Amino acid sequence: MHKKHPIDTKDFAERLLNNFKEATLILGEDLYIHKVNRVLCKYFRMDPEDIVGHHISVLVKNQCATQEVLSFVDDILSPASPPTAQRRLRYDDDETGRRNLSVQGRR
């Protein structure tokens, strides 16, 4: 008889998230970030502790992009929207200049 071991869902979620090849985060309806993967941290050149627990605006430096992200999140959370959506945003980075950021969301 095999003894069942409970699955550590927190550890499993962390490993799963870090296996994604795309920059990924888990965002609450309050727009605070709950989890991020390594790819996202590398993309924004930030440590996880500087992102997790903070408002989504920590990832977007200029006000225009912040408004675009907030609008996108509102669209995703709307009951009238499809369960997934995608949008391309412009992102200004002091080191690399302006670049495109492809954002996908899922309710």
User: What integer value in Å does the Rg equal?
Assistant: 16 Å
Distance between the termini: 41 Å
Total helix count?
A: 3
What fraction of the residues are assigned to beta strands by DSSP? 25-35%
Which residues form runs of ≥5 with pLDDT under 50? Answer: none
**Main β-sheet description:** 2 strands, antiparallel
What level of helicity do the residues show? 25-40%
Shape: globular
Total number of β-strand segments?
Answer: 4
Succession of helices and strands: HEEHHEE
Residue-averaged pLDDT, rounded?
77
Write the layout of secondary structure elements.
Elements: H1 9-19, E1 25-27, E2 33-36, H2 38-44, H3 63-77, E3 84-93, E4 97-106
Antiparallel strand pairs: 1-2, 3-4
Task: Explain what this protein looks like in three dimensions.
The model has no long low-confidence stretch (mean pLDDT 77). The chain has 3 helices and 4 strands. It has a two-stranded antiparallel sheet with strand order 1-2. A two-stranded antiparallel sheet has the order 3-4. The N and C termini lie far apart (41 Å). The protein is α+β, with helices and mostly antiparallel strands. 31% of the residues lie in helices and 25% in strands. 7% of the residues are buried. Strand 3 and strand 4 form a beta hairpin.
